[in-house]
């Protein structure tokens, strides 16, 4: 089994391998933290002070500041929270993070040192680990949003669908017949992606109760066909929508209904008639929060569940109110959908994620363009060696990885391509690790010429149409050799349309030119990652959600 040293033991079903290292860590942490279990709504117990907040939370209207670790998608709640502050005196001081990053902090105990509460899209996954319920004292659902399919209106017409009656089986049939291609976030890194995965598996398996390993096994042929139609993957909903706007070959997105309606694009939103998995956004107190923080949270959540606040929430965020009698925002359809069954155990959830990563989804094909110029000598090269060696544990079955070191030009005698064989994954992983440890620094910095060679390499390989292709660029300096930026821009513009779909994900590191790297990301449809404020291995790992 692959190492899971960064995560809790996975407990996968017999006969399965663990997820890649980062996916295993985030999935296990998500399981651990989201065991927010069925906690009392009154905040039970006094807990211990963690130095949080200001003011007296127990006094009606008294000013108080709650420190909240929140899913990044909840940034759209800021106008609602400002109104809540005026009415209750409670200020929410959010720290936004990806859902799974937030979950890791909860599971490790780090969250309770800096926050009073957490606010994620769902606690369902975490309830599979009841042993972590001690970190949580109360959760209050605030609003809901179901998983949905957003399609270009012309595609709905071409398929002859009635949006109110479409089922997961119909969607599967269209995908299997190659009439529909879609994008979805990575289930191992995004709660919307995991909710979509559970929705699809439940819908195609016909499960009538908690999803089981037998359900997943029976549905595997259909699931493989379904995920064969996935043409875009992403670590975040925001980037997914942006990338989708560049891709005419991608007909649809699978995400939360509110996210789809908020893209600003013309989409027909379909909630499959046979059921969905729904996010309920529970505001959740940490056990270590002070008594004043708990009292302030009670005032805040009571206000957010009033009819006036619920109306503001649905109008501003296009999520659904949890209080009966509150009218839905205009784009939201009122007809009900069955809630699809969630996995009944951690083993089933782990097994479903493992199957998606290593069997069901399209494999990845990535070129890592790594700066090994003279300026990398010393600590920087040591960090690159260490970060890439660690990253090797994160590669999936069937994934093809090309390591392309460069200095004044691409060091062609050091370019190597590896494919992770499901029957013997350690062979490729060991070879990549050995190459990473042997990287040496010399020469200038030929960023643009090296990127051109990366695109040419991908253009000559096989399997491009059936893989997620990407280029990762890591450099610590400015371009000093080879083609200039303008030449690369012209090169990219002249690429065939299929090759233009390969994004570049640059990493800001050392003294690299942020503006130049940001331009590369924007030109190619990629995203810039920053290793100057965090770790280089963290940047590499974050990119995994986009590959």
Give the key terms:
547 residues, D-Maltodextrin-Binding Protein, domain 2, Rossmann fold, 6-stranded mixed beta sheet, 39% helix, globular, disordered N terminus
Structural topology:
Layout: H1 21-33, E1 64-71, H2 78-88, E2 90-97, H3 99-108, H4 111-114, E3 117-119, E4 136-141, E5 143-151, H5 153-159, H6 168-176, E6 182-185, H7 191-205, H8 213-228, E7 230-234, H9 237-245, E8 252-256, H10 257-261, E9 268-270, E10 278-279, E11 282-286, H11 291-304, H12 307-317, E12 320-321, H13 346-360, E13 364-371, H14 379-391, E14 400-406, E15 416-419, H15 425-437, H16 447-460, E16 468-475, H17 485-493, H18 497-500, E17 504-508, H19 514-524, E18 529-530, H20 536-543
Structure description:
39% of the residues lie in helices and 17% in strands. The chain is α/β, with parallel strands linked by helices. The strands form three sheets. Strands 5, 6, 7, 8, 9, 10 and 12 form a seven-stranded mixed beta sheet that branches. It has a six-stranded mixed beta sheet with strand order 15-14-13-16-17-18, sandwiched between helices. Strand 17 (504-508), helix 19 (514-524) and strand 18 (529-530) form a beta-alpha-beta unit. Helix 1 crosses helix 3, helix 6 (168-176) packs across helix 8 and helix 14 packs parallel to helix 20. The longest helix is centred in the middle third of the chain and has 16 residues, at 213-228. Mean pLDDT is 87; it is low at 1-51.
């Amino acid at each position: 089994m692959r190492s899971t040293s960064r995560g809790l033991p996975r407990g996968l079903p017999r006969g399965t391998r663990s997820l890649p290292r980062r996916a295993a860590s985030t999935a296990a942490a998500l399981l651990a933290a989201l065991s927010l279990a069925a906690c009392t709504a009154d905040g039970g117990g006094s807990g211990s002070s963690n130095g949080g907040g200001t003011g007296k939370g127990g006094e009606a209207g008294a000013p108080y500041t709650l420190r909240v670790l929140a899913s990044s998608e909840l940034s759209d709640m800021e106008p609602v929270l400002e109104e809540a502050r005026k009415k209750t005196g409670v200020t929410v001081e959010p720290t936004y993070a990806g859902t799974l990053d937030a979950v890791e902090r909860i599971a490790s105990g780090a969250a309770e040192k800096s926050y009073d509460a957490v606010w994620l899209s769902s606690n369902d996954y975490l309830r599979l680990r009841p042993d972590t319920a001690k970190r949580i004292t109360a959760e209050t659902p605030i609003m809901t949003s179901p998983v949905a399919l957003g399609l270009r209106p012309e595609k709905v017409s071409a398929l002859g669908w009635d949006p109110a009656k479409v089922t997961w089986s119909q969607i599967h049939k269209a995908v299997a017949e190659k009439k529909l291609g879609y994008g979805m976030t990575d289930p191992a890194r995004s709660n919307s992606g995991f909710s979509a995965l559970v929705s699809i598996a439940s819908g195609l398996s016909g499960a009538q109760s908690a999803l089981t390993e037998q359900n997943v096994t029976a549905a595997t042929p259909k699931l493989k066909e379904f995920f064969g139609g996935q043409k875009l993957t992403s670590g975040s909903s925001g980037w997914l929508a942006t990338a989708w706007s560049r891709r005419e070959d991608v007909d649809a997105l699978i995400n939360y209904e509110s996210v789809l309606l908020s893209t600003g694009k013309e989409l027909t939103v379909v909630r499959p008639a046979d059921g969905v998995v729904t996010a309920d956004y529970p505001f959740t107190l940490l056990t270590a929060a002070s008594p004043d923080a708990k009292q302030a949270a009670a005032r805040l959540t009571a206000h957010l569940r009033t009819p006036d606040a619920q109306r503001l929430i649905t109008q501003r965020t296009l999520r659904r109110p949890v209080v009966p009698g509150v009218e839905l925002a205009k784009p939201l359809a009122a007809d009900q959908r069955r809630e699809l069954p969630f996995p009944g155990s951690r083993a089933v959830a782990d097994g479903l994620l493992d199957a998606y990563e290593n069997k069901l989804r399209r494999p990845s094909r990535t070129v890592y363009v790594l700066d090994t110029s003279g300026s990398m000598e010393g600590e920087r090269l040591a960090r690159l060696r260490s970060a890439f060696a660690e990253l090797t544990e994160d590669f999936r079955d069937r994934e093809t990885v090309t390591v392309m070191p460069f200095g004044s030009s691409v060091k062609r005698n050091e370019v190597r391509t590896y494919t992770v064989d499901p029957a013997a994954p350690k062979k490729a992983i060991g070879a990549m690790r050995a190459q990473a440890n042997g990287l040496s620094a010399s020469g200038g910095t030929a960023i643009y010429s090296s990127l051109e060679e990366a695109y040419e390499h991908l253009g000559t390989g096989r399997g491009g149409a059936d893989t997620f292709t990407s280029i990762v660029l890591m450099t610590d300096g400015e371009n000093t050799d080879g083609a200039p930026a303008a030449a690369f821009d012209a090169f990219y513009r002249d690429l065939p349309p299929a090759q233009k779909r390969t994004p570049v994900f640059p990493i800001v590191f050392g003294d690299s030119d942020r503006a130049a790297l940001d331009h590369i990301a924007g030109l190619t449809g990629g995203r810039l990652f920053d290793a100057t404020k965090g770790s280089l291995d963290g940047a590499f790992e974050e990119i995994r959600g986009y590959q």
